[in-house]
Amino acid sequence: xxxxxxxxxxxxxxxxxxxxxxxxxxxxxxxxxxxxxxxxxxxxxxxxxxxxxxxxxxxxxxxxxxxxxxxxxxxxxxxxxxxxxxxxxxxxxxxxxxxxxxxxxxxxxxxxxxxxxxxxxxxxxxxxxxxxxxxxxxxxxxxxxxxxxxxxxxxxxxxxxxxxxxx
Length: 167
Known about the structure:
Layout: E1 32-36, H1 45-61, H2 68-88, E2 92-99, E3 103-110, H3 130-137, E4 140-145, E5 151-158
Antiparallel strand pairs: 1-2, 2-3, 3-5, 4-5
Helix pairs in contact: 1-2, 2-3
């Protein structure tokens, strides 16, 4: 990503079991989960495939049907993280959904080891706003670095509607 200061930890609205604003290894959450691994990890077409997969996987994970806003938010944010993984993270390696009765966590694993940067993109650019959208829409998000195995970038959405940023 473009060189700008790392995002301050205070913006990474970590899950209560995370440490220092970064996602730390967590105790197993009760709930349902699903995993997807793309065939072409460095191809931007993987982003569209991830959106299709999450659209099909969500109904089997949620207690109630996803409303259009929730499904749209999840697809948008997943698309942004997958695009970042392909363009800046060395390739998209997988997506994991972890669902409880109140929260959906979406994790994108990529091959990159670098920290994420929120860029202040000008209005004339048609790219560079992915993490701004994640921060604005998600209830929380963060990063977990894996030495010698890339990183996980995750976001959470509240399934109860609480804590969702207006848009």
